[in-house]
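Sequence in, structure out. Go.
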Amino acid sequence: MSFARQLQPLTSPLTDEEVVTRVRGGDVPLFEVLMRRHNGKLYRAIRAIVHDEVLTEELMQESYVRAYENIASFEGRARFSTWLVQIGVNEAIARTRRAKVSPVDESEVVPLDIPAQQRDPEGSASGRELVGLLERAVSELPDGYREVFMLRQVEGLSVAETAEALNVTEETVKTRTFRANERLRARLDTWFDGSTRELFSFPIPRCNRIVDGVFARIG
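Output:
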């Protein structure tokens, strides 16, 4: 089935649930609103698992296609973003299992070596350099900790939402959040404040590429 796609605004007064209802009713182009609204969240969730930019974008498209194909099954018991992230996490885990990628051994995690001249926030490190250090530190977290940190600390999901998205217990989420914070705090001291929202940014050109790729498949 084909349709005339019109560019959707970057912002919309409609809630996710209202958009879902309209997409179910045949307003397929409106699905773009959901993609643009949650591209960053889905990217960070998948990127935390697969460690590969090209594969991350491929899995994002696959996740959106699956979400569109199964949108009638979305019951609204959780937020749409949580449901979408869960699809993305499952896609990423399935792909790594098929590729027979072994989990990271915590004993093999390389400590972050921060040059002395970059330890002073008012020294030579620029804001982008600081974000780069944070991204590197987060990437070096062990599997399990990294995904929890990304969803809880970067995306701001609740403990319950993170547990549902990752299919773990709430207690596991709390424990891993605490331990991930301790690891990062030991390496980066107090540099978290105000910087985590910039981690693993997802710029407009990449957002456009994902949207175009998905509509090429569902159109």
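Check: The first helix runs from residue 16 to 24. Residues 86 and 165 are 4 Å apart (CA to CA).
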